[in-house]
Design brief:
The protein is mainly β and 434 residues long. Helices cover 8% and strands 37% of the residues.
């Protein structure tokens, strides 16, 4: 048995979870008075200047410039508004935001200190006052204060979803998946992506990548997550204005954990599944894949959902002549188009010999039961040698690309340290929030 498309797959419910994260304020240190004739010390002893030595010229100090956005008394701003901070010749010392009742709003500076991001959406139809303090390299302190107000709720929201359950454990290939309905226009993707924050512990920096339609965005690192990694996500989208007249619907947060490495590999040539745990081969199973008229998809797929018992009903899609309705055990969804790993007692004699399914990976009942008990949502399965390639967006296809291909889908510039091969990638400070 094989391909199964349900109304649920076409209009799947979007699930979201809530979690919180933290980011400390980082201040740059400045020192020295810039004098060329300052004495030199080695191991605590003052050294005499070399005869005839000429002091090195020093660059003139950078003029102290300090600006804040939004403009004072600005009205009708979105609840996604950040406090923009621009400083030359100094550094931001503090940012404080209070509402009209004087209550402080929590938030943090971005890593590049280009703006201060509230930890939750601002309130609609509310006045705020931002106080920003900056200090020059020479110690000069300057304070700027701006007041602004937010607009009312429009009601013309996009639909969005975060495929990550708070507190759950996932497989090493689990991407952070965001879904949008309708899709995000290309001209808006950079602004949306700037509002997507991910932290990983231990740090494994990654990149967001969009599918062409803008209906999904994936976040992953260059390699599979390390077992035991903690992932925290915030999609801070509530109120963000889009060019199609819509706005972001809500902020979504989740925090999850990555479990042990568990990988499945299927080769159409041998019609066998090899199962690896922590990079050790632990099982080999015969399989039957999709027959030539309904082939399985070749590529790297990810377990998206698991159902111990379900029903495949294809009459609505295939009609009364080709459709079927069958009880299925140990079903693990791999694509939105209806490809699964599942128990298939009717094809045991074909498994390891020939392909007879409608696109699914058929296993003997005892093998399907064992595998179902071992896998997690987010575990990868690589299928090769079939008549069809996995289509982008047909499932969570973030790993069906090389790293070089994947990062091309980012709407923002990718740091140079992340552009190399996975083995050569550096580990910069991860993107963080809260």
């Amino acid at each position: 048995m094989g391909r199964f498309v349900t109304r649920q797959a076409a209009t799947r419910r979007i699930l979201a979870a809530v979690a919180a994260g933290t980011l400390g304020l980082s201040l740059a240190a400045c020192g020295g008075d810039g004098k060329a004739d300052a004495p030199t010390f080695v191991n605590g002893n003052q050294q005499a200047a070399a005869p005839g030595a000429t002091p090195s010229p020093t660059a003139p100090p950078v003029p102290f410039e300090f600006a804040v956005t939004p403009a004072d008394k600005k009205k009708d701003l979105p609840v996604s508004t950040e406090i923009g901070t621009s400083v030359k010749g100094g550094d931001i010392t503090s940012v404080t935001l209070t509402d009209k009742a004087g209550k402080a709003v929590k938030g943090t500076l971005r890593d590049d200190k280009s703006s201060w991001v509230p930890s939750a959406p601002l309130k609609y139809d509310t006045s705020y006052t931002a106080t920003v303090v900056a200090t020059s390299a020479a110690g000069q302190v300057e304070t700027k204060k701006v007041s602004f107000s937010t607009r009312g709720k429009s009601g013309n929201d996009i639909g969005s979803g975060l495929y990550l359950f708070n507190g759950k454990t996932y497989g090493v290939a689990m991407p952070v998946v965001l879904e949008f309905n309708p899709g995000i226009p290309k001209k808006d993707r950079a602004a949306v992506q700037r509002r997507l924050f991910v932290t990983t512990d231990p740090p494994q920096p990654g990149v967001w990548s969009w599918v062409d339609s803008g209906t999904q965005a994936y976040y992953r690192a260059a390699d599979y997550w390390q077992a035991g990694t903690k992932i925290s996500v915030r999609a801070a989208l509530e109120g963000i204005p889009l060019s199609n007249g819509r706005v972001g619907d809500e902020d979504r947060k989740a925090s999850a954990k990555i479990g042990d490495k568990f990988v499945m590999k299927v080769d159409n040539k041998t019609k066998k599944m090899l199962v690896y745990k922590s990079d050790k081969l632990i099982k080999t199973f015969p399989v039957s894949l999709g027959k030539p008229s309904t082939p399985s998809s070749s590529g790297t797929l990810i377990v998206m959902d698991k159902q111990e018992h379900t029903v495949f009903d294809t009459f609505a899609e295939l009609g009364p002549e080709e459709g079927y309705r069958t009880d299925i055990d140990f079903a693990q969804r791999l694509t939105w188009g209806g490809e699964y790993i599942h128990s298939a007692p009717w094809s045991v004699g074909d498994q390891g010999v020939r392909n007879v399914s409608h696109g699914c990976v058929n296993l003997a009942p005892q093998n399907a039961s064992w595998l179902f008990a071992q896998t997690k949502v987010g575990d990868p399965i690589t299928i090769k040698g079939t008549e069809r390639k996995l289509e982008p967006g047909n499932g969570w296809t973030a790993w069906n690309q090389t790293w070089a291909e994947f990062i091309k889908g980012s709407a923002l510039p990718v740091p140079a340290s992340l552009k190399g091969t996975p083995a050569a990638s550096a580990t910069p400070t991860p993107t963080t929030t809260d």
